[in-house]
Amino acid sequence: MTALSINLNKIALIRNSRDTEYPSVTMHAARCIAAGAHGITVHPRPDQRHIRVSDCFDLAEMLSVEFNIEGNPFAPAMKSPRRGVSDYPGFMEIIRQIRPAQCTLVPDGDAQLTSDHGFNLQRDGDRLAPIIAELKNLGVRVSLFMDPEPEQIRLAKAIGADRIELYTGPYAEAFGAKQQNAVLQRFIDASNTAGEVGLGLNAGHDLNLHNLLLFKNSVNQLLEVSIGHAFTVDAIEMGLDACIKAYLRCLQ
Ligand SMILES: CC(=O)[C@@H](O)[C@H](O)COP(=O)(O)O
Ligand SMILES: NCC(=O)COP(=O)(O)O
């Protein structure tokens, strides 16, 4: 069964729209776990637009499932965006202090609305390699956020990654359109390359209850999906417990 890791970014986004602690990120994590989620994912961005540094430490204290922290390893320290919120110490400092089960490195810039591309390892591989080595020495599984490009995926293995996370935005955009099968084939080919070189396969971004089953049944040995945006909206409509179970049914 493919593991379901729920991304709680959007719970934090709602919380940050008021000067309160409601909705609670940790309470939603506990609810998702109780309903059957296999992991929790967060993406603490330097501007702390949603997940804050304090959320990462609060979650690390209480999680009984795998904790996956995503971010740009080159993201520098940044002053707090508002009173009562701690400064951002730099992404790698968060990981050094928390040492989550998995760290998914993502090449996001601060001006991006959301994650929208994978790494270019021809350009960034040499400076990523020592970061990957440090994370593995800390006992953290390393996954790289990648586009479905076999050559790039081979480079991910060469620089020491344990897994890749295929950026599924283009698949989600093509789903139901005439180019769906051609786009899906790129992901199938990429998953086969990952298997050939011994990389574990994760996937995420814009996956939902409509497009997940086809993706999961098409690619090779999908170990984990991380889902947050669509999950949050679906949970409003269905209820959190029923929503978790609906996503789990797609992953059986
Ligand atoms: C890497 C990825 O695709 C998502 O995990 C990312 O966390 C989405 O970030 P936002 O929730 O800020 O859009
Ligand atoms: N890595 C993908 C993730 O954590 C959640 O992406 P989305 O479901 O919010 O698009």
Q: Which key terms come to mind for this protein?
A:
11 helices; about 45% helix; binds ligand LD2JLWAY; globular; about 250 residues; eight-stranded parallel β-barrel; binds 1-deoxy-D-xylulose-5-phosphate; alpha/beta; TIM Barrel
Structural write-up:
With 252 residues, this protein is of the alpha/beta class. It has one domain (3-251): Alpha-Beta Barrel (TIM Barrel). The protein is built from 11 helices and 8 strands. It has helices at residues 9-15, 25-34, 53-62, 91-98, 121-137, 150-158, 169-174, 180-197, 212-218, 229-238, 240-251; strands at residues 3-7, 39-42, 66-71, 102-105, 141-146, 163-167, 200-204, 222-227. It has an 8-stranded parallel beta barrel with strand order 1-2-3-4-5-6-7-8, surrounded by 7 helices. α2 runs parallel beside α3 (53-62) and α10 (229-238) packs across α11 (240-251). The longest helix has 18 residues, at 180-197. The radius of gyration is 17 Å and the shape is globular. The termini are close together. The model has no long low-confidence stretch (mean pLDDT 98). Its EC number is 2.6.99.2.
